[in-house]
Amino acid sequence: STLCHSDTLSVSCGEQPVACLQSIIEQQQRLASGTDGWWELEIAKLNSLFKFQKIDDLYVALRPWINNPDVPPQYQPHIALIYGKWLQRRRRLDEANVALEQALEGFKALEDKNASAQLELKILNTLVLLNRFEQAKTYVEQLKQKAYDSPLFYREVYAELAHIAHKNDARQAHVEYRRESVRWAKQVPDEQQ
């Protein structure tokens, strides 16, 4: 079963968008609106809508939070990232870059306060979305120095590097990074046990 992740919560989803979203909504309704748990689930819901390509539904759910000062600062970069990805999907690239730049600035500010593997993956992902491949590669080298004990983290890092290589038509590097990502993926514990 696939998991829909926010930073600290995960919702068992499978590949069934309706069940996944329903599960998130049910959990969110049990929480007070505006709490950290509620916001984590809101971000998970928005990410799930994007993942399951419910692009019109995503915009309806996302619109109230775009540039909304009531969104807590630690969640604003997540909103900007999802909005930037939505704009890219809509081929509104100049606007997407503005939103992604906001996301990157926000994630970096959060990283300065309290670095975490999940936050660093968001920064890496945002750099790739902005086509800043050299910056992304340099950032990966910094991340490798941290030596996280997390196969999931390295699977994602090497998947991003493979994405960069693919976009740059570096076929050999693409294959090597994919292999490395798979090697790390095989070390990820099975969450169903």
Summarize the structure.
The chain has 193 residues and is mainly alpha-helical.
How would you describe what is shown here?
- The chain has 9 helices and 2 strands; from the N terminus they run E-E-H-H-H-H-H-H-H-H-H.
- The N terminus is likely disordered.
- Helix 4 packs antiparallel against helix 5, helix 5 runs antiparallel to helix 6 and helix 6 packs antiparallel against helix 7.
- The chain has a two-stranded antiparallel ribbon with strand order 1-2.
- The chain is globular.
- The chain is mainly alpha-helical.
What attributes does this structure have?
globular; 193 residues; 2 strands; disordered N terminus; two-stranded antiparallel sheet; 67% helix; mainly alpha
Gross morphology: globular
* Portion in beta strands: under 5%
Whole-number average pLDDT? 84
Please report the number of helical segments: 9
Global structural class: mainly alpha
| Spans of at least 5 consecutive residues with low confidence | 1-11
Along the chain, the helix and strand elements come as EEHHHHHHHHH
How many runs of DSSP E, i.e. beta strands?
2
Oligomerization status of the protein chains: single chain
Topology:
Elements: E1 3-5, E2 10-12, H1 17-29, H2 36-51, H3 55-62, H4 76-89, H5 93-113, H6 117-129, H7 133-145, H8 151-167, H9 171-185
Antiparallel strand pairs: 1-2
